């Protein structure tokens, strides 16, 4: 077990009994350490421990005890000819990747993403699945099946506000599915008949029993709530009081016989599941191109199996840490003192559980899940581990159902999307580099990647609703961005913008497309800002681009993120308000209009997935960007070439501190009506003569989806500054793609601004 005393005992045994022999050998000896569920207990959070006393503090010992197996504090105890390899294995590696590199178990040398069998997959470029020729029965049924391709089959069912009816419907679905599975195995005994017989051998039992059939009810992490939920199921099935339910649980938990009468009393509710499963079988057949849909027996056959075989031998079991709870599931045949063999106890069982089911416990034949748990702070890795319905259920996938609140189903779908995006990053890295990649770990606006690492924040791709580039050149020298602005307004027609009774600025008569707007921002040059392509911005954009190009190469074969790499300026730290990152975002938006990219969320619906959005609608809503100059309150700019334009530009006179503007957007009057001037970020609305968008109650600064955007230049020349300099702000509408990278405190905030 991953427990400190056990690990230390193992280390002591190695040092005393094994290492002396290794030391005496004239040959290398290799130690392989396999750490299963490596994200549980093996994570060391350096930020938490930074506040602890190094000797007396509450330091986490499990990771240290694991590392001490091959690298104890006293290196004299380790033979020089011993070479250790540590392999951590987990389905949810978010915390492992977010560990600081100096933590002893952080991945350093290699990272491999294992593949699962499905009906598609490529070796080069490597994909997260591989082709399994034996068909659906041997496919891995994970998130891709339950949340994407299985959607037409109705595998996920949103619960209502009536929990009693939801519970009843889920149990009916489970029992009807059990009857169908038993009837399909026509050469085998039903659960009740099999449980009443004895057999000569284990092999004879296995040949006679029907498929194991299980249901999981996950009401809460609270132990008491799990016992109460079991009692509610039994009361629905016919128990007349909580006391009778408790008595039933103490005697094995088998459903009351009176439930059989409910089958006839509520026949329409039971029979409805037969039709739903028949419809699901057709949908699965089309989704996976199977030869024929799986057969669904007639209602009369199913009713007989329910009453005679399924209901009498289905039990309710509570599995948790309470001493009064049931033992773990029993799926193996057992032999009595007389040598007679018996069928497993749990041929058909409704398991009610909580955290015990969140890791490492497999429910064979899991068909139906009622997931009622909610969380104030959803954690992707923890809730992914709770999804016990993943597995190899292709042979009966049309009978599987997950009942959960719609917000929880949305979370599950989002978890799958970011997990698949992470796998894609890793598989791409495996093609190119033998060293361990440093992937961007994704999360969502409404959930964190993990709770095992402190101070996680969200680092979005989208620069926000109205990013203002405070970076500005010094007015001591000529600003090259003056040429950019002059050329733009010399080459293109423009007109004055009047608002509130006076001229406020100048606007190009035609807007720019997304890629044109990106190219414009990339032309900005700053003498004191010259980031290269070996920074965190470039890492993030490269990994995003890999996911984009999994759906086809970009048309210009250039990176999304394109800092100018000016050779005559020293390399400088990258900024969060990097103008070239805004340009990269515009290119991403344009590329995603024709691609269902994994791990991205539309900014106007952050719990939906871009990979499942309507691209035609997104194309119709894509923004154009109007480009303007906001006039200031200073003297007209007199320096060539701006002074040679066919209009006069009064300079802004904003304060500059340390190469940054002290203020950003100006002239803000939210209460201004159509006759006034609401603010600089609405300049294009006044130019087009359009009605200003209403300000929402929450005063959201976003422009509505389908709106156009704005790129607004300021020519700044306060009194005493030798040359005019250029600043720029951008307004971005809702509706573009975004991702939310999990950022630890140092990565997120120790960046030059």
Count every beta strand, where a strand is a DSSP E run of 2 or more residues.
Answer: 27
Number of helices: 22
Distance N to C terminus: 47 Å
Task: Name the assembly state.
Answer: single chain
What's the overall average pLDDT, rounded?
90
The major pleated sheet works out as: 6 strands, parallel
Instruction: Please give the share of residues in helix.
Output: 25-40%
Q: What is the percentage of strand-forming residues?
A: 15-25%
The assigned structural class equals: alpha/beta
> Rg to the nearest angstrom?
32 Å
- CA-based shape: globular
Low-pLDDT windows of residues: 746-753
Strand order in space, largest sheet? 5-13-11-6-10-7
Q: Would you mind describing this structure in some detail?
A:
- The chain is of the alpha/beta class and 753 residues long.
- It is 32% helix and 15% strand.
- The chain has 22 helices and 27 strands.
- It has a six-stranded parallel beta sheet.
- Helix 5 crosses helix 15 and helix 9 crosses helix 10 (242-250).
- It is globular, with a radius of gyration of 32 Å.
What would the keywords be for this entry?
753 residues; alpha/beta; six-stranded mixed sheet; 22 helices; 27 strands; globular; disordered C terminus
